[in-house]
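Final report, closing paragraph on structural work. Over the funding period we assembled a curated collection of sequence-structure pairs, and we close with a single example.
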Amino acid sequence: MKITYLFNSGFAVEFGQVLLVFDDYKDPAHAVARCLRARGQKSVFFFASHGHFDHFNGEELARFAPQVTRFFLSSDIKGSRGASLLPAERVTWLAPYEDWSDETIAVTSYSSTDLGTSFRVATQEGTVFHAGDFNWWDWLGDTHENRQLAANGFHKQLRRLEDMEADVAFFPVDGRLGASKAKGAKEFCAATQVRALVTMHNVGYPQFEVPEDFFAPGRAIPVWSPTLPGETRELVFLDKKGEFR
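Its predicted structure, as stored:
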């Protein structure tokens, strides 16, 4: 599985005969164009988890529309000007907890603790989870009541994801949260059966360093925290153990 960082929560994932592009609102390194030029016979699927400016840009996606097999957009984006730029016959709108599948991929949408959805995408070659803005948004300077609401909302949604399996998960580790930045990712990894983690939504902050107590004993998985647009890693599994190369 080849993974390329675009910006913020944007990634291109290539494996087998499939190219998946998530939350491409900005791509300074022009990585998506390169992936499409080299795609061969790959099916191409674009995803947008919600309508925030740092996750969805209709003009950016429309540039690639002729080469895209299907767009999967969170239903909150419907009606926006950007959405109208995309070919309606190849757009699938997904509210939380909906499923869509064909002979190539199976998509399940989940809820978020912010706007929109998260996605689990399964193919014959692998499975990806992209959290969108689902996270434990524990703002340290907020009121006790608001912080408790954030904790309750996160754990309610996390129960819907318990024991979910994925080869790789993309999950926010946002430096703006200070000491709380890894709380959501830590609990997500403990509750699910993901085999590798890529952190995201950390623009402008130093690369995330995994704390010693981040994983429970025996539950450690490989982690990649990209910071430079266009960075690429290959995720390889040997004897059920994964690593980023």
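The chain has one domain: 2-244. Residues 25 and 56 are 5 Å apart (CA to CA). We thank the funder for supporting this effort.
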